[in-house]
Amino acid sequence: MNVTVWNEFRHEKNDEAVKAVYPSGIHEAIADFLNEAGFATKTATLDEPEHGLTEDVLKQTDVLVWWGHMAHDEVSEEIVSRVHQRVLDGMGLIVLHSGHFSKIFKRLMGTSCDLKWREAGENERLWVVNPGHPIAEGIGETIELEHEEMYGEHFDIPVPDELIFLSWFKGGEVFRSGCVFHRGQGKIFYFRPGHETFPTYYQSDVQKVIINAAHYVAPSKRDKPVYGNAQPKESLS
Amino acid sequence: MNVTVWNEFRHEKNDEAVKAVYPSGIHEAIADFLNEAGFATKTATLDEPEHGLTEDVLKQTDVLVWWGHMAHDEVSEEIVSRVHQRVLDGMGLIVLHSGHFSKIFKRLMGTSCDLKWREAGENERLWVVNPGHPIAEGIGETIELEHEEMYGEHFDIPVPDELIFLSWFKGGEVFRSGCVFHRGQGKIFYFRPGHETFPTYYQSDVQKVIINAAHYVAPSKRDKPVYGNAQPKESLS
Amino acid sequence: MNVTVWNEFRHEKNDEAVKAVYPSGIHEAIADFLNEAGFATKTATLDEPEHGLTEDVLKQTDVLVWWGHMAHDEVSEEIVSRVHQRVLDGMGLIVLHSGHFSKIFKRLMGTSCDLKWREAGENERLWVVNPGHPIAEGIGETIELEHEEMYGEHFDIPVPDELIFLSWFKGGEVFRSGCVFHRGQGKIFYFRPGHETFPTYYQSDVQKVIINAAHYVAPSKRDKPVYGNAQPKESLS
Amino acid sequence: MNVTVWNEFRHEKNDEAVKAVYPSGIHEAIADFLNEAGFATKTATLDEPEHGLTEDVLKQTDVLVWWGHMAHDEVSEEIVSRVHQRVLDGMGLIVLHSGHFSKIFKRLMGTSCDLKWREAGENERLWVVNPGHPIAEGIGETIELEHEEMYGEHFDIPVPDELIFLSWFKGGEVFRSGCVFHRGQGKIFYFRPGHETFPTYYQSDVQKVIINAAHYVAPSKRDKPVYGNAQPKESLS
Hints:
Four copies of one chain form a homotetramer. By secondary structure, chain A is an alpha/beta fold. The first copy, chain A, has a domain at 2-110 and 177-217: Rossmann fold, CATH 3.40.50. The first copy, chain A, is built from seven helices and ten strands. Chain A has a nine-stranded mixed β-sheet. In chain A, strand 3 (63-67), helix 5 (77-88) and strand 4 (92-96) form a beta-alpha-beta unit. The relative contact order of chain A is 0.17. Chains in contact: A-B, A-C, A-D, B-C, B-D, C-D. The interface between A and B is large, with 40 and 41 residues.
């Protein structure tokens, strides 16, 4: 299975605090544990030609992981349309943290994807609310994150097809932190944690969730549905 | 409650067969029964300035009904964005029949909204699959349509939040014909029947569904959620 | 519209602390504000004959509100079956707080309905996660309860058809606190708050939710679906 | 992975027409293709001691397949409770055809599970409505069954967590034919086809669906959630 990890890769170049946590970029940290988990993993970043997401790359990608934040606006509409089409055609998509405001996530959701936020480094606790779900396999009843950015409800997304994690924040907020959506033949998993100044993606249970999700949103092997004018399958007379 | 019925109003001008069925336009036929049901109903059409959907009109609209087909592409992006925002802010939206391919519906869904179709005038039978739902109130176990265009699965929409009707077609297809979606603070109802060459909107149980739906998708009275940077509600120390 | 408020009415007789909060019983406190809201409201309690839920009473009940805790086991199977059938036939049901462990709720859910709990009087904050839902109408972005019993995930219920409130607790837990379920022709609303030692049901926004819910789960007027052997609606030849 | 196929195994003994189709019983026909697909498959039938479903057998069963019809009432409450608990603890359950009226399915659903039916041997066509779902992998856009019993809506089940197939019947009915439900830690798949007088379970795409489903409802490896009284995870002062 081929996974491509996409990252805008800007914070890590411009901000010493971020560079200290993710010296090779968030994408490399994520690619490392996905590779170890047995996925054939590549990376792509905003400043590469076509943001690293050429037709060829996408065609060979089973699951795309997306991390973006400060440069959502720099992602070209053409590439967004290309990724959108690939998701509808079956490619899995894992949207992480601030990717909630990415063009691709907003286009797939049809809503503002807005939320409350606060950078206070408070602790976050994710509770499993769908205990039989494959994405929660091997996860305890909570995931404890010592320091994270807060995201709070209302999170302006469509009702998730499956809700797997709910977050508790010390400052008094809650959040739907692990959500599955079906769009076309594609499956999407949104996972909240992962602020650029915290070592969240080095934590083993966070990695486990992303690995589980990559398996879960993998494309199903089926011909694309046929649309358009259709002959009757039964006699109309 | 204020309802605005929007229609592209083209078939009825250009096609004698359609004019014969809806001489004043589909919008007037729909507005008639909504008026009778007690809604303050207005109409708007594609060829009016701003397609009849000025900021003022939308501001005063609780529920917008949408019928379009041959001229989806002529609806300006600006007006689509305006309607989109109003739906997210709470305005109800009822999308009828070929409106499945309207820009506003596709933007709200995030998918292609494609489907199978056939104009053979075969009979359609809608079955109620959510018998306690207010939109099915007063409806028998089926709605029988003697002649309709066929729409068949796969219908490329997100999983509906509520599924109320399933259609059977003589030619062998099925379709999810009555679907509720929440987007932002707004509620959307997609209802399949209503091809322009058939007198579907004069049928009393079809009218009843649209009347019920107008009540159901009416805005809830609440302040808009607050988004953005948030102070903690509890001490972080 | 006829509402019946059922209460086991034991704590209020046996426990001075509870009596101090609800001197006439929780059912009377709830009936009071429902009456004021315009519902024709009656009460019924465990120690009445047939627990106050005779065939006649149920037949005339549009929405049944249920509060129970220490005496779930004393509710007879026969009455549970009677209420169950009425819900499937369309009667609305609002299950409050510790009613999660009532026989009727467990039978309708098919799961254990178990959860975490703690009586520490900590504060609870309910967040609205479905901002356009009629049950949240008139409610701010949170409901703040100064002292409540904690209920925490995992809450062993089926996936709710609609999720409206999520609770945050000071001690670190979250909970799906406002859930709609469809069963048969009936609609069910589970609402978490309302421990017997706290004046929760005197709080106006809590009352507002229960009033909204009574409207929402009210029966739809439709004939019961026909089941069993069916003649074909189309020729089979 | 261990699969147990349970069958009441009565029609095949008493009815020559059924015996002609399934000479060794429906369970053996199903076990055959599951074995070939690589599952360690056993069978169990009603007339064995404890219906073949001892504590030991269930403990070692990852996925239980259930076919029953004429003898639902002979299944003991004790065994139903045992299976129910195992499902809540994570065992997958695939309920086939007339199993819709089994005690175990009704207990898990909380509804009557009633439906319309007709034994006319008409043709059935299942349409895939969730094209990216693993249970539909390798399946064309329809499954065509030349002769089947008709099951028609309204099917009195809770709203499925995932809806994968819709059936069309020549006689004019539709049906939600492939439904996933989560209950506790367990996953359940209901699949409509499989009347005892038709060779449905020998058809390769029907087999493919059941094989896919066995993978899909397999237990996730996680500790059981902890319920009951809970110490705070955060300071309450």
